[in-house]
Specification:
CATH class of the largest domain: Alpha Beta
Radius of gyration: 28 Å
Mean pLDDT: 88
CATH architecture of the largest domain: 3-Layer(bba) Sandwich
Distance between the termini: 58 Å
Oligomer: single chain
CATH topology of the largest domain: FAD/NAD(P)-binding domain
Largest sheet: 8 strands, mixed
Number of helices: 15
Structural class: alpha+beta
Helix content: 25-40%
Number of domains: 3
Shape: elongated
CATH superfamily of the largest domain: FAD/NAD(P)-binding domain
Strand content: 25-35%
Length: about 650
Amino acid sequence: MTEHETPVLVAGGSLVGMFSAALLARHGITPLVVERHPGSAIHPRAAMIYQRTMEIIRGLGIEEPVRQESYRRFEPDGAIMSVESIAGNELNWDIPTLNEFVKDLSPTERLFITQNALEPMLAPRARALGADIRFNTELVSFAHDDGGVSAVIRDRATKAETRVRAAYLIGADGNRSAVRQRLGIAMRGRGVLSRSITIYFRADIAPLMRGRNLSVIMVRNAMFRGFFRLEKPFESAFLVVNSVGDPSSPVSDTWSLSEDQCLGLVKSGLGVDTPVTIDSIQKWECMADVADRFREGRVFLAGDAAHLMPPYGGFGGNTGIQDAHNLAWKLSLVLKGVADPALLGTYEDERRPVAAMTAAQAHTRYVLRGAPHLAPQGMAAFINDAHIDLGYRYRSAAIFTEADDDGAVTEDPRQMRGRPGTRLPHVMLERDGERVSSIDLVDSGFALFAGPLAGPWVEAAGHAARDAHLGCQVFQAGATVGDPEGALCDAVGISPSGAVLVRPDGVVAWRSAAAAADARPTMARVCAAMVGRTVAIALALILLTSAPMRAHHSFSAEYDANQPITLQGQIARIELVNPHSWLYLDVKGADGKVTRWTVEMAPPVNLMRRGVTETTLVVGEEVGVDGYRARNGTPVVSGRQIRTADGRTLFTSPSATAPPDQ
C-alpha cells in the first residue's frame, strides 16, 4: 500500500468539495480531493446561484465563463412562476425577475446554472491553483487523533489502496455522508418531508412558453405538486415531484410511481398531450435537517453532509459553498502556523446557526409553494431571499460583537452598515483610476477600511497585523482609495475617524465608529482574536514581562460587599493558571505613588460580553476595574468587571484559588 501526506483531505468532489479545494488552494494550501464517481455531476441539479456565491466565484476568477454558460443555457434574469400547468392557468409570479430589487447590493448578479455545467469549470480552476483531485476514488476508512487524520482511499478502477495522513479532513460527501455517519453525528429538524422524484425528460416545450422568460415553474394542480426547471432551447427539462393526489391530503411518497405514471405527471404539468421521452428518474428524500455538530476533532462537515434543505428557494448548494468559504481561510492560517487551532472552533459557531435558519426558510418555502397541507404543523416566518443570502450574521470569538447586538441571525443587507459579523457592504470606490467594488478589494487576506481621518487606526492596524503575522491591506478613503461619492463611511457605519476590519471571507470582524486613544492595544486585541491566539498571546506576555512564577501559597482573603472599589490603572502582569487568572494593576494615587493591586478572577469563557475576554487584554493597557476589597486591607480585589478604554466591558467572577506570589 502506498502512502501519501496532505494538509487537508476532502471527501467528496461534487459542488461543495470542489469549492473547498479551489478556495483552500487559493489560500496556498494543497488539498487532496477524492470523489467516488468517475467525473463531475451528470444531472442538472442545484441551478440557482445567489449573489454571495457569485462573489466567491468572482474571487476565484471564473465569473465570466460561469455567466456565459448560464446565458447559454437559461434566459438571463428569468422569472419563477407558479402555475396549474405551463400551458394553462398562471397562479402567481413568485419572482418576476431574478435580480429584481437586488442589483445595487453586489457587483454580481444572481443567475441559473446547473451543477453539471458549473462543476466542470471548478475542477480545472482548483487544479490550476494546486489542488490534487482524484475522481473514481473513494474514502474507505479514516480515524482522527490529536495530531491529524489517518485514512485509506481506494482507486475504484484498479482497486489500489493508499494510506493518507492529513492534518484535517473535510466531509463534503453529500446527504448520505459516510463521514458524518462514522462520526456518529445525528441530523435533527423536520425529518423526511417527502420521498420525491426527479424526472429527466425531452419534449418540445418552446411553443408553451409564449414569450415568457421563465426559468423555474412551480406546479400545483389536482394531480401533483412540484416544479419544472427548463433549459434553452426548451427541448429538455426536469420535473421534481414532491407529492401526488388530493392537495388537501396528498401522498408524499412517490417512489413507487411507474414510468407510465411519471409520463402522465409530466404531461399534466405541461398542460398538453405532446410527445415526451423520459431519460431517467431519480429518487431522493426531501428533508430540512441540520447536523448536531459541524466538527469532531480534526474532521469538519460541509454542504449536504452538514445540512439538508428542500430545493425550494435554491439555498442548499449556496449554503454549502459558504461553508467552504468560511472554513478555507481558517484552515489556511492554522496550517501555516499563523493562527492557533482555537480559531477552527469558530467554524461551527458561525455556520451552524446560519445553516439552521436557512434550512428553516427552505422548509417555509416548501410549505408555501409545494406542500400547503403541512402549514398546520408550523413553519418559520418568511424572510426575504436577499436577507438570507447577504444579510446573515455571525457571532464567535473571531467577531467583536457590539453592545447593541439584538441576537438576530439575519437582517436586511441595506441596514447592516458594517455591523461586526455581517458581510462587508458593496460600495463603489476608485483605485488606480478605475472604479472597483469594496467586495473586490478583499482578496484573500484581511483588509482595513478606514475613514479619511483614521490615521491612528491605520498605523495601529499595520503594527498589530505585523505582530500577528497577518496580511492586511489598508483602504483609507482619500488616501489609498478614492471615495468620490463619500459613501464609504456611511456604508460601514463609521465617522471619518473610524475604521472596520474585514476578514478574508469578506465578513466585518470589528468596527470602531470613531477615533480612540488606545488604538494600538485595541488593534492588538483584535488581530490576536483573528488568529485565535488570545490565550497564547497573553501567555507569551507573561513569559516576557514577569518573573518566573513561584508556587502558590494559601490565600484565604474574604471580600467585603460593603467595600466596593473602582480602580483605574495600567496592566502590569497577567497570570493564567488554568482554569484561573489574575490581573496585576499599577494604580497611581493622588500623591503620585504607584500601588500594585491584584485583581482575582476566573476566565469567563462562557460569560463573554461585547466580544472581550480577559485574555484579550494587553500588558501596558489602561483599564478600569470594579470590584470588592479584601477584608484584611491588602491591595487585593475581587473583580466584577473590567472596562477597556474603547468602551468594552468584561464581566468576570472571582477565582476560587490563590494567585501566584507577586
